[in-house]
Amino acid sequence: MISQRLWGRNPPVDSLTMSLAPTASASIQAPARAPWRRAYAEVVTDPLELARALDLDPTVVAEAAARSFALRVPRAFLARIERGNPRDPLLLQVLPGLLELEARPGFGLDPVAELARSPQAGLIHKYQGRVLWVMTGACAIHCRYCFRRHFPYGEHLGGIAGREAALEFLRRDPTVREVILSGGDPLSLDDIVLAPLAKELGTIPHLERLRVHTRLPVVIPERVDATLIEWLTSTRLRSVMVLHVNHAREIDGGVAAAVDRLLRAGVAVLNQAVLLAAVNDSVEAQVDLSERLFEIGVLPYYVHQLDRVAGAAHFEVPDERAVALMAAVSERLPGYLVPRLVRDDGSSPAKVPVR
Ligand SMILES: *Cc1c(COP(=O)(O)O)cnc(C)c1O
Ligand code: SF4
Question: Which ligand is the nearest neighbour of the Cα of 182?
């Protein structure tokens, strides 16, 4: 069994979505919620509905696994999954499966030792010059292999008071050059929260870059709307967005259009993927992914070896095979389309190349 005892289940999405909002924001927003909020609210969370929508036998969805980490699939992502195919590489990323419930040695709750590296509620400071800000536990999609699937968001976010303290920490440390908004998915938060934050970060003289780690433009492309572009580009900081796409088929016309809006606004767009057994652990899948990314203007940045989080052992690709795979990929592509194979070992001063 995966132990949920220590940290409990993820808190309800809605409370987290608003956790950083100034108290008045709910009423300011209420009359006109952003259009993407509808897609965000209409995600599939019911295992039976998933099975029905995809013409699958309902027994392929393990409800016990969905109770430990909820099923959550936006409809735009669902539409890219092949009907009637229980092995579809997009489906496997979101399908609660029985294998998740098997305890495996070496797979734990905090696989990359983040909790030990938090100087301030919400902030993780592991690497020189960069501070990662865990802004929310909410995600539009739930990826079964997620390394933060057991992250104790509830205790760690710190709410509105935490926001001020986190900003104060960043103001006081002149070695920090880049802030990385992360989560969960930071773009789960409303722009009414993010826009003032980006502006505030821009007033900290030693900061140079604002990075956003997000899967939302991939799974709900309309999230990249004019309001988002506005705050992302009106700050003094150079904006970088790092997407999370694991398979070429995740990219459709909607995703291409969202990326195009970002590129036209001058945002640098990169991708990180996770190497996942049966999803993208073939030369073909990796080559297709890189080529498809570049077709829409995105450069492959990292392909991560799986973080050993409880419940995700069946996604692991052994190092030796991963290295051979990426060597074969590098024979097929220009160097700039070969992502770096790395792992987060929890203690090194940077992501560690796997070789
Ligand atoms: C991965 C990570 C970063 C970013 O690392 P880069 O190599 O700059 O992409 C920063 N902080 C933490 C805690 C991370 O896990
Ligand atoms: S979008 Fe990212 S943070 Fe959210 S579940 Fe997927 S991998 Fe985890």
Answer: 2
Residue 14: predicted pLDDT: 38
183 ligand 2 Cβ < 6 A: yes
Ranges of H-type helices in the chain: 13-17, 25-29, 36-41, 47-53, 63-68, 75-78, 91-94, 153-156, 159-172, 191-202, 216-219, 226-234, 253-264, 283-295, 319-330
Cα–Cα nearest to 149, from 136, 137, 131, 133: 137
The dihedral of CA 64, 186, 37, 12: what is its sign? Answer: positive
**Which residues, in sequence order, are CB contacts of 334 under 8 Å at separation 6+?**
none
Ranges of residues in the chain with a pLDDT under 50 are 1-31
Amino acid at the residue 140: A
CB-based contact 228:187 (threshold 8 Å): yes
Ligand 1 test: best mutation among 110, 120, 127, 348, most atoms within 8 Å of CB? Answer: 127
pTM over 0.85: yes
| DSSP-assigned states of every residue in 168-218 | HHHHH-TT--EEEEESS-GGGS-HHHHHHHHHHHHT-TT--EEEEE-SHHH
Q: Using CA atoms, how far apart are residues 344 and 310, in angstroms rounded to an integer? A: 16
Q: Compute the 3-state secondary structure of the chain and give helix, strand, coil in percent, each to the nearest 5.
A: 40, 15, 45
Would you say 259 and 297 are in contact if contact means Cβ atoms under 8 Å apart?
yes
